[in-house]
Amino acid sequence: MFRNNYDNDAVTFSPQGRIFQVEYAQEAVKQGSVVVGLVNKTHTVLVGLKRNAEELSSYQKKIIEIDSHMGIAIAGLASDARVLSNFMKQQCLGSRMTYGRAIPVDRIVSQIADRAQTNTQHYGKRPYGVGLLVAGVDEAGPHLFEFQPSGMTHEMVACAIGARSQMARTYLERHLDEFANCTRDELVTHGLRALKETLSQDKELTVENTSVGVVGLAGEGAKGKFESFKLYDGQTIAPLLETLEQSEAEEGKETMEVDS
């Protein structure tokens, strides 16, 4: 049986200049359930679709609070996400104890990128098989970053990663111009709509399989005052799903009126 001799470790390049273990890690991200992130002038929103391995098990956590000003959404191996999230929590705590302030979002993203990229430089290690959307707020305003297993990071206006995420990205691209001037609640609704685009026909968004995280400025133009990261999970997400249904119903009525 032929064996690819270039995927035994993460430090050997193939003749085409590829590192196969990094590509395998990226494939693990693509197999994870979808998460969506959006940002406007005042807030950043994370929306995630939770899976359960079987009927008897609980749903996998998709959005994790890192600090009062930051949270992450995960797609891929949850065990690798746990290691990275614990590292991020330690760095946030260290910044508060040493400097008496929250760590800037771009700095902690750079730190996890360095940590991930180091795994592609040492024999015997492997890339983290998880992708992250990092949402946070600091003195520069709200931010959304995408983290990839290769160690690449990008600041995004809107992003979706995971299985069937292309449908969500299509929705985000179609409505991109609307996000900047959205209110907090409208941004959440856009996130839920993008998430709904990824569902197969026999599935719906419910309080069991949906999570939402929101962080941002305390008010329009507020400097130095942040709205703490808030996670909507379980029954607390029910009002958001009701708002989504109402907005879709109103749009349906408007479409019918235009057609008639």
UniProtKB/TrEMBL annotation:
Protein species of origin: Aspergillus wentii DTO 134E9
Identification of the protein by name: Proteasome subunit alpha type
GO cellular component: cytoplasm; nucleus; proteasome core complex, alpha-subunit complex
Keywords recorded for this protein, A-Z: Cytoplasm, Nucleus, Proteasome
Coiled-coil residues: none
InterPro entries in alphabetical order: Ntn_hydrolases_N, Proteasome_alpha, Proteasome_alpha-type, Proteasome_alpha1, Proteasome_asu_N, Proteasome_sua/b
Any single GO BP term: ubiquitin-dependent protein catabolic process
Proteasome alpha-type subunits domain boundaries: 6-28
DNA repair in keyword set: no
Pfam families in UniProt: Proteasome, Proteasome_A_N
Phylogenetic classification of the source organism: Eukaryota, Fungi, Dikarya, Ascomycota, Pezizomycotina
Subunit comment: The 26S proteasome consists of a 20S proteasome core and two 19S regulatory subunits.
Compartment annotation: Cytoplasm; Nucleus
Domain of life assignment: Eukaryota
Recorded family membership: Belongs to the peptidase T1A family.
Keyword Nucleus: yes
